[in-house]
Design goal:
Layout lengths: L3 H14 L5 E6 L2 E2 L3 E2 L1 H8 L3 E8 L2 E7 L2 E6 L5 E6 L8 E7 L3 E6 L6 E5 L8 H4 L10 H10 L5 H6 L9 H11 L12 H20 L39 E6 L2 E6 L5
Antiparallel strand pairs: 1-8, 2-3, 4-5, 5-6, 6-10, 7-9, 8-9, 11-12
Helix pairs in contact: 1-7, 4-7, 6-7
Length: 273
């Protein structure tokens, strides 16, 4: 699933490429995604509006338009937003095509259909159930003061807490795994059994790994790419995610794999306690 760095990479790319472009048409077919996708309704809402500055909230992308209104997008497990010439062949699983006034298309491709493209009229954003449920932004400056006490108040494993979008919005399996390794903390360690000092270190490492991944354009494991089609290059910098059976880069102990909340978690039995 695209996580915060991948969605932020998409946001930055769209900010450079399509701001002030006018939407000529929205095309596609009705399909069941996270919410029903209705390109015809989107066409009525978005046609002839201009693209304003895109925003991000957790793993959600918000494309503001002028006159006001917002297209809310989530890439789900395998979604991609591609910005291509209008005469490029349509890829399989392309569910939405936004035609711009310069002839280019912004296309939503989502093989597994766990994504989302939903129109928000002015005033609806604050009441949208997906957005209203989100926790703190991981890159906020005050997170190192805000999040550790909240983690310490919970009895769940720290890996599960980092993935809980109601606590902190945007962290997924890749970056939670890497941050826990960097902080030297066992993924299954419970929040209420971890000192505030160690939890502060964990939050700092979460922020560090997210910032580094953004600088590398995110992580491509299978499906993700930027709107240009470029792949994220942070995968070569991963230390333990996907490395079960290989030596730990820090101590040489074999990296192990365990399941927490149905998610695979790589960890080092010597470095992480």
């Amino acid at each position: 699933m695209p996580e915060l760095p991948e969605v932020e990479t998409v946001r930055r790319a769209l900010s450079r490429a399509i701001v002030d472009r006018r939407i000529v048409a929205v095309e596609g077919g009705r399909v069941q995604m996270r919410r029903p996708l209705d390109p015809h309704a989107l066409d009525r809402a978005m046609r002839d509006r201009r693209v304003a500055e895109p925003r991000r909230r957790g793993k959600f992308l918000l494309i503001d338009l002028d006159p006001p209104g917002t297209l809310l997008i989530h890439l789900g497990m395998s979604g991609r937003l591609l910005l291509v010439p209008g005469d490029d062949p349509i890829l399989p699983h392309t569910h939405l095509v936004i035609v711009l006034d310069d002839g280019r298309n912004l296309r939503l491709v989502d093989p597994r259909r766990f994504g989302l493209a939903w129109w928000l009229d002015p005033g609806e954003e604050s009441g949208d159930p997906s957005l209203a449920a989100l926790g703190a932004e991981p890159l906020d400056e005050g997170l190192v003061d805000l999040l550790p006490p909240r983690l310490r108040a919970r009895r769940s494993p720290l890996k599960a807490l980092l993935l809980d979008q109601r606590l902190v919005a945007g962290v997924g399996n890749i970056y939670a795994t890497e941050a826990l390794w960097r902080a030297g903390i066992l993924p299954s360690r419970r929040g209420n059994r971890t000192s505030l000092e160690r939890l502060c270190r964990l939050v700092i490492e979460v922020q560090s790994v997210l910032r580094e991944a953004i600088e590398q354009g995110g992580t491509t494991i299978r499906d993700y790419s930027a709107p240009s089609g470029d792949f994220g290059s942070f995968a070569v910098m991963l230390q333990v995610y996907g490395k079960a059976g290989l030596p730990c880069p820090r101590c040489g102990t074999e990296v192990r794999d365990l399941r927490l909340g149905g998610r695979s978690t790589a960890w080092c039995s010597r470095c992480q306690t």
